[in-house]
Amino acid sequence: MIYRDPKCVFVAKDGASANLIAGVLIGAGFPAEVMNEATLGGFEGITGLVPGFSHKGVEVWVTDPAHVDPAKQFLEEEMKTIEAEKQKRDARTGTVTVACEECGKSSDWPANAMGTTEVCPHCTAYMDIPDPDDQWADVDFGDAEEEDEK
Questions:
Q1: Which of 1, 62, 65 lies closest to 28, judged by CA?
Q2: pTM of the model
Q3: Residue ranges for the chain with pLDDT beneath 70
Q4: pLDDT computed for residue 150 by the predictor
C-alpha cells in the first residue's frame, strides 16, 4: 500500500502537470509545492527503470494542513469547470477559417479546435484559433513592449 502524506491534495502523472496544479493552487491562495518525484509513495513508489521517477505519481502538497480540504474542494470545482468547457468545445460541429498572423494564409479547422493553439500548415508558426466564448476584452496583458528603432 502506498503511503500518501495527509497534506497531499493531488497526484499528477508527470512533473509538468504537478507544477501546473501547484501554480493554480498558489494563485488561488493555497501555498503548495511539488514533492520530490523520486521518493513518492515511500520505497514502494521508487522504480529503477527511470531514475528520479516514481511510477506512483507526482504529489502536490499544500504546506498548511488546514488548507487540505479547501484546496481539494477548489481543485474539484476547477476540474468540473474544465470538463464542462471541454465537453462544450467537443460538441461543436462544422469548420472555422482562420488566417495565420505570420504568413497571412487561411486554413480551415474543425469547430472544436476553437480556443486552442495550432501549428499553421503553411509556415509552421503557432496560430490561435479564436473562441467566440472567450472574453479577451476583459484580460489585462500588461504594457506593450516597445521595439528598439535601428
A1: 62
A2: 0.60
A3: 1-2, 36-55, 134-150
A4: 47
Secondary structure in 3-state letters for the chain:
CCCCCCCEEEEECCHHHHHHHHHHHHHCCCCEEECCCCCCCHHHHECCCCCCCECCCEEEEECCHHHHHHHHHHHHHHHHHHHHHHHHHHCCCCEEEEECCCCCCEEEEEHHHCCCEEECCCCCCEEECCCCCCCHHHCCCCCCCCCCCC
User: Residue holding cell 479546435?
Assistant: 113
In one letter, which amino acid is 8?
C
Place of cell 500518501: 4
Q: How many CB atoms lie within 10 A of CB 125?
A: 12
- Round to whole Å and give the CA distance between 9 and 63: 10
Provide the CB-side half-sphere exposure for 55 (13 A, CA): 7
φ/ψ of 59, rounded to 5, equals -85, 145
